[in-house]
Amino acid sequence: MKRNEVLRQIPKIDEVLKEHLFSNAFEISGRDVVTAMARRVIDEVRSEILSLSEAALEAYDTTRLSVSQIAGEIMDRLEEDEINHLHGVINATGTILHTNLGRAPLCDDAVRNVEMVSRGYSNLEYDVKLGKRGSRHDILQELMVELTGAEDVMIVNNNASATMLVLSAMAEGHEVVVSRGELVEIGGAFRIPDIMVQSGATLHEVGTTNKTKPSDYEKAINENTGALMKVHTSNYKIMGFTEEVELDELVDIGKDHDLPVIFDMGNGLMVNLSEYGLDEPNVPASLATGIDVILFSGDKLLGGPQAGIIAGKRRYIEKMKKHPLARALRVDKMTFAAMEETLKKYRDTSVAMRDIPVLRMISTPRDILLGRADKLSAKIREANDRLNVRIVDAEDQIGGGSAPMVFLPGVAVAVTSDATTTKGIERALRKYEIPVIARIHEDELLFSVRTVVDREMDDIAAALKEVE
User: Fold this and answer.
1) 262 near 296, Cβ under 8 Å?
2) Same domain membership, residue 441 and residue 309
3) Which residues carry this modification: N6-(pyridoxal phosphate)lysine (predicted)?
4) Same domain for 120 and 249?
5) How far is 139 from 162, CA to CA, in rounded Å?
6) In 3-state terms, what secondary structure has residue 385?
7) Is residue 420 packed enough to be buried (19+ CB in 10 Å), middle (13-18) or exposed (0-12)?
8) What pLDDT score was predicted for residue 306?
9) pLDDT of 396-408, one tens digit each?
């Protein structure tokens, strides 16, 4: 068959769009969207035919060019196009603050408040009592002062932004003294020295990688010193022959030289979790040492939305609120809505431990984990009796660049198949309508129940149902 004869069999767009199956698509997606997709599909078919060799052209199945076949292809593509790029997944990895999976899940009240605030208008920058313009900076001020003991607070869009703003507002054109052992990279090649350059401040490194003493800071201070800074090395640990300057020691040095002390804490822990193996600094205790400014993430151990929280002395925070970067780094109403409901939980530690998912996952006792594993394994066996299913001990992690040396004793459901490779099962689950993300360990697929909630168990079982 000649190429032109095949090309002439491609139906016209108007002819295809008369098919009845497009009636709902016109209503849902809009005629322009459907027409554009039809044009794209037909253009691709035409390009494919033009690229065929003579031999391939002879074997070409022209039934693919029928109106119904082309219409079906268009509908398939429209349905694919409707799938959101950002969507929910089930985290069965046992890593609580999985950065690639969005870090901290929000508590139920935070989700409800986001929905309520985002459905309509809000008093984001309006003082309802006075009937005049307000400030978004005031929304969380009283609550954060109550919870942390800080004089003032400011919220920006992440902790890297907070670092940039703090350094720019407090030390632009001046030196900031930092221990060489605390010059961290927080991910994505985003490094403290690079942030320092962008902020306009000058880095003054002191000490060595493994040892920094108070005298190192004392010797580094000169007429151009703008601040002393401590960075919590939350994503790595230096062990062995080490020494570091504690916060209270750094505060004393700062007072002696009339210099502000900045603490880049990172993880945002608000309560003491040492009984669960997390010997990490927390915000209230850190502020109690007398530091001038602390900054930390909202979506790590705090358990809220992505944000950078800056708290401390009012004279420094007020300067940041007036800084040109403040508007570029500010957060929206949905972040404030989620953050307020999250922070309110911390008025009572027991409520925070119960209601904030991150804290609840960290503190879940073994008997509860075993009960969940029993429940999940039973559902998997019921859905697919061809699979090998057993309950095993596992090591869970905090994740999110927090407490890298801490492994939480966990429980997992291990799945294998005699007919399908473990990698094949893992790949199939990632492609399920609600992707299930698990991890492979010693050729078994592990579903850690610490990060799986009860409502997700049926979906995991359903995803495994068709696996051979």
Assistant:
1) no
2) no
3) 300
4) yes
5) 18
6) coil
7) middle
8) 96
9) 999 877 777 788 9
Q: What is the pTM of this model?
A: 0.86
* Cα–Cα nearest to 72, from 31, 28, 20: 20
Q: Which residues does 21 contact at the CB level (< 8 Å), separation at least 6? A: 71, 72, 75
Cα–Cα dist 373/449, whole Å = 6
Which run of H or of E encompasses 398?
A: strand 387-399
Q: Is residue 251 part of a domain?
A: yes
CB-based contacts of 457, cutoff 8 Å, min separation 6: 372, 375, 376, 379
Question: Is 228 within 8 Å of 289 (Cβ atoms)?
Answer: no
The percent of residues above 70 in pLDDT, for the chain, comes to 98
Residue 402, SS3? strand
C-alpha–C-alpha distance, residues 178 and 193, integer Å: 10
Q: Dump pLDDT digits (tens) for 35-82.
A: 999 999 999 999 999 998 888 888 888 888 999 999 999 999 998 888
Alpha-carbon dihedral 377, 378, 380, 383, rounded to 10 degrees: 170
The three-state secondary structure class of 281 is: coil
Assigned token pair, 255: 């007072």
Greatest mean pLDDT among 83-87, 193-197, 213-217 lies in 213-217
Task: Note the maximum CA span of the chain.
Answer: 92
Based on the fold, state whether residues 150 and 49 are members of the same structural domain: no
Do 238 and 334 belong together in one domain? yes
Report CA-CA distances (Å) from 326 to 141, 173, 197, 296.
16, 19, 18, 16
The DSSP call for residue 12 is P
Cβ-contact 150, 349 below 8 angstroms: no
Residue 299's CB is within 10 A of a number of other CB atoms, namely: 27
Beta bridge partners of 227: 176
pLDDT for 187 equals 61
- Give the position of tokens 């078919």: 45
Same domain, 346 and 373: no
